[in-house]
Amino acid sequence: MSCSYYHTIHCETSPSCVEKNCVADTLKLIDRLQRQCESKEKESLCIRCDKPFLGHRSTANTRPIILYLKNGHPFEIIYCEENTSASHLVFRVEEVKGNCAVLRLLIPICPYHNEEINLYSPSTSKLYKVTQTCVTINLDDISAIQCLDDVHLNLKGCQY
Asked: Using an 8 Å Cβ cutoff, are 131 and 10 in contact?
């Protein structure tokens, strides 16, 4: 069983998730961790959304996520830049209030222009373009969350 899958199954079967929105609770944890950004030297053997610290190194300040809708499809938004548009699905949690979350779009950057990026792999590229594009979502529409490797992003000048 993959570690990303573990959190989904755990929430569906855990009594503590019966009356709570486990996606909202997980996003709140990620939001809190990103705000704290305390230096941690601990290592984890797998990528879990509920890992209580950020990163394998002390510099991580972001846990990139992919959210899945109830129909099983990833939550995506269109991002337009330089006369082109494309659908993207990697986000950073900016804030969680009640059952709503503000997410910032992250665009994976491929170090080699011809290389294919597998966004569904937890070991995907650790390079992301931080955009100024944010979206507010209702967490009732989300059924699962996948966390990617924690990273350090340059967030200077980012406001939502």
From this structure: no
Q: Please give the C-alpha separations between residue 64 and each of 56, 57, 84, 100, 126, in angstroms, as whole numbers.
A: 14, 15, 24, 18, 10
- The two three-digit tokens of residue 143, written as one number: 């059924």
What CA–CA distance (Å, rounded) separates 1 from 10?
12
For the full predicted model, state whether its pTM sits above 0.70: no
DSSP string, 85-140: EEEE-EEEEEEEETTEEEEEEEEE--SSTTPPP-TTSTT--S-EEEEEEEEEEEGG
Strand partners, 134: 104
pLDDT digits (tens, 9 = 90+) for 88-147: 999 999 999 888 999 999 998 865 555 555 554 444 446 899 999 999 999 999 999 999
Residue 18 tokens, joined: 């019966």
